[in-house]
Amino acid sequence: MLMFALLSLAAAPPGPSSATEAWPTTPAGRIIATPDWSDYRIYPKDALKKDQQGRVRPELWIGRDGRPKACRILSSSYFPELDAGTCKLMMQMRFEPVQDTEGRPVESHYSRFASWRLTEEVPFQSGRLRARIRLAGGHVQDCGIERSDGPYTQNWSGSACSILSDRSYYFANRANDSLTAIIEARLDANDQLPLLQEAWPVGTVIASEKISFVINASGDASECTAIESLNFGPRGLNNLSPCGRLLSVIWFAPPERRGTERRGSFETRVVVLDTP
User: What is the number of other CB atoms lying within 10 angstroms of the CB of residue 166?
Assistant: First the structure.
């Protein structure tokens, strides 16, 4: 089902747009024109063609006449088409011009969080993803999903290889080696499912990470905190969130009992196979 949900509105912190120019710090005036965010037909077309979904937070630089002059991304969806499409929509907005204390028009800024969805919310249950990746000549030569268990199969299978192909992060100082590896991720929802007791892939573990998280009122994984992390490389632009991209593509359904706090952990291991 095609859905679009606007999560919240927020004033963005100021920040430089270049080495010599800073964005305005004055909040925008009253909104006088805006796209209909509830209309599914405004879904960015280039992103829709690629089945992209995610959260994005753009910020507008608004001129003295109340018209946007520029748009930048404060929090990326990790998909350039989705980020660009959201900015394009934001640039259609119009605002009541802002004046300073002496009645002179001034520039201002405006930001909002947006969430673009192509999939339904899913239950909070344990799940697993296993992908096989082959590196050669400094490139990812092949990536395939070997196994996906739990309610997140649709969410993970379509985007996993684009996420896991970040060689610098997942393989660090072995990113230029020729090797075959298994990357397995497990979400533990504290429901004691048997898959959590099964053996991990056999081979040489070159990187591992385990984070704890909570599910907030919007169904997002948040408050992600590393319990342990070993040998991952620097995060690339497509993988900056501490919650990780595999968690960020899921919207969890509300709990059965209102106000129930839900906690889980998410573990990832990179295992190089002894035989490529």
Answer: 20
54's tokens? 């995610």
Distance CA 230, CA 269 (A): 10
Give CA–CA dist 116/135, Å, rounded.
33
Q: Domains (ranges, CATH) in the chain? A: 3-117 (3.30.2420.10), 127-272 (no CATH)
C-beta contacts of 83-86 below 8 A and 24+ residues apart: 83/56, 83/58, 84/44, 84/46, 85/43, 85/44, 85/45, 85/46, 85/47, 86/44, 86/56, 86/58, 86/114, 86/116
CA atoms of 64 and 45, how far apart (whole Å):
31
CA atoms within 13 A on the CB side of 218: 14
Q: What is the block-wise mean pLDDT of the chain (276 residues), using blocks of 10 residues?
A: 40 40 92 85 89 86 96 88 94 96 95 81 92 93 92 80 88 94 96 94 95 86 90 72 77 80 94 81
At 75, the amino acid letter reads S
Q: What are φ and ψ of residue 245, in 5° steps?
A: -75, -30
Distance CA 109, CA 107 (A): 7
Read off φ and ψ for residue 81, nearest 5 degrees. -65, -40
Predicted structure pTM score: 0.65
Please say whether the dihedral angle defined by the alpha carbons of residues 43, 45, 48 and 50, taken in this order, is positive or negative: negative
